[in-house]
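Lecture notes, unit on protein representations.

Consider one protein chain, 190 amino acids long.
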Amino acid sequence: MYLVSSLPIKIMACDSRWSYETDKFFYYIDDSGYDKIIYNGVIVAVFAGKANVIELFKKWISSGCKDTMPNPNGISIIAYNTLTDEPFTRNHSFTYPSNKKILKFLFSGSGAFDAMRSWEKCNDCIKSVENACLTDVYTGGSVKFLNVLSLEHNILSEQTQLSDLFDLLKERGFVMRKHAKTVEYYSRTD
């Protein structure tokens, strides 16, 4: 889940929860170090969805978008080009208000509607994501953000590798029994 506000605020924010689910269980890890937000000095983007597709986009953006854009199927994206002052969205993203002539705010991901409802009350990008963490099970962990104007951010300079994400889930993740709504440490020893 994430959102971005357009002029004049220009803040992009997202949660830090990675998860997957089966018929009976919901597995998740918060604050893994594999952020859903990236900034290459020109483009800032936030993602939700399949980690392997997000990884392709993170590499593409890190390279300066030199090659063909990866296929965005399986993820939603909100990106912002700081040079052209233009947003870019794909899949499950919407604007608020919906007036297409004056772009106000962009929301995306599973917690988008929860964040939008919060935004209507607090007008704070980071607080809206924090509030969505309280109401959407797929949204959680620390809020990662980038203020495009001041470049203030809390994006990690050293990122966890995608290949390490599943191991981290086994070490310090959680599992929720879907129907019982109980949460336990996932840590499993092989």
